[in-house]
Amino acid sequence: MYLDFGHTALRVLIGAAFAAMAAFGGHSGVAAGRGGHEMSASSHAAGVIEASGGGVQTVVSWPLGAQGQLLSAAAPPNRVRIARIGLNAPVSTLDPGRGLAGPANPAVAGWFSQGPAPGDVGPAVIIGHLDSDHGPAVFWRLSQVRSGDEVIVTRADGSTARFAVRRVARYSRARFPSSEVFGPRQGPELRLITCAGTFNFLTREYSDNVVVYATSA
Question: How far apart are CA 59 and CA 12, in angstroms?
Fold first, then answer.
């Protein structure tokens, strides 16, 4: 009973620098890498994250460094908390080779490191299992989150990113709106995603997904 979005065709491609700026409304400026190096926004290429599943494709531009690494001003997340549902869980970095497959440990949420980190411009994505063969998992109560709830993400450097929930949506896997969920935004946002609906014991997949949309508080 594990999380699987069906977005198996996830990969990072190299594009032109102007593609990144166009995706973010033409903004330029300075992008700070995780190693503390700074580059002009016009001097690096754009990583294009292509996601496909359920007949839907989306392409998201994100800046890359000279070695092809994603540039991020924010440190990776290591914990997520939501008071309403009693969530206080560790966050690991998802294996890039497995796309959006959830963490092996159902008690741990996973950050999609091929996209923004929480606090960066754009939609940071944290996913988690609904349940496992042993019972409820990390995002078991995610659908109970409500608009206005605070989501607190602690990062590896000890800093904190705070988000306010704007809405909670449920989508059929066959009609998952990839562009709406993963598409570029002009400010820091957060997406929390898990499974929902009916479980198919043959395919071991749920019929739906729940997505929590949150913006920087």
Answer: 10
Instruction: Report the side by side order of strands in the sheet with 56-63.
Output: 11-15, 46-53, 56-63
pLDDT value at position 54? 39
CA distance linking residue 211 with residue 83, whole number of Å: 18
Give the whole-angstrom CA distance, residue 167 versus residue 153: 18
pLDDT tens for 26-43 read 332 222 222 222 222 333
Token pair recorded at residue 108: 């741990």
Q: Which CATH code of 2.60.40.1220, 2.40.10.10, 2.110.10.10, 2.40.260.10 fits the domain covering 11-216? A: 2.40.260.10
Q: Which residues contact 131 (CB under 8 A, 6 or more apart)?
A: 1, 106, 137, 140
Taking only the tens place, the pLDDT of each residue in 52-62 is 443 344 444 45
Mean pLDDT of 145-150: 98
Which residues does 141 contact at the CB level (< 8 Å), separation at least 6?
A: 85, 86, 87
Residue 137 has pLDDT above 70, yes or no: yes
Q: What does the alpha-carbon distance between residue 159 and residue 172 come to, in Å, rounded to a whole number?
A: 35
